[in-house]
Amino acid sequence: MTTRQSIDNFINRCESVILFAEEQYEEGNRQEHYHDVDYSEAMMDLETMLQQLHKMTASANAQQREQLHRVRLKIQQLQNKMILLNHDRPLYSTWH
What is the pLDDT of residues 25-81, one digit of tens each? Predict the structure, then answer.
């Protein structure tokens, strides 16, 4: 069984990763692809947290699983937004 403190610490780490990814999403939305490395890093961090979250869920009680489920939804929604942003669009168009 996972302790309450370890779940709280994990959720706090998730929230930090989510905040960083949201900042990168907003930055990417404004400046297109000038910060590709940070944007990619944020996406990898989200995926890493999602993998760790699945491991934590296996040893969590029902209340903890509910907390982790809400965090998982936030992470996945942000991942979807970041994927759909079209961050890799070209700086100029070849269409005339």
Answer: 998 888 766 667 888 999 999 999 999 999 999 999 999 999 999 999 999 999 999
pTM summary value: 0.82
Residue pair 46/72 in contact (Cβ under 8 Å)? The answer is no
C-alpha to C-alpha distances, 40 to 26, 36, 65, 66, nearest whole angstrom: 14, 6, 28, 29
Task: Please provide the size of the chain in residues.
Answer: 96
Q: Supply the DSSP string of the chain, one letter for each residue.
A: ---HHHHHHHHHHHHHHHHHHHHHHHHHHHHTTTTHHHHHHHHHHHHHHHHHHHHHHHT--HHHHHHHHHHHHHHHHHHHHHHHT-TT--SS----
- Contact indicator for 81, 25 with CB cutoff of 8 Å: yes
Write b or e for each residue in 36-45: b if 16 or more Cβ atoms lie within 10 A of its Cβ, otherwise e: eeebeebbeb
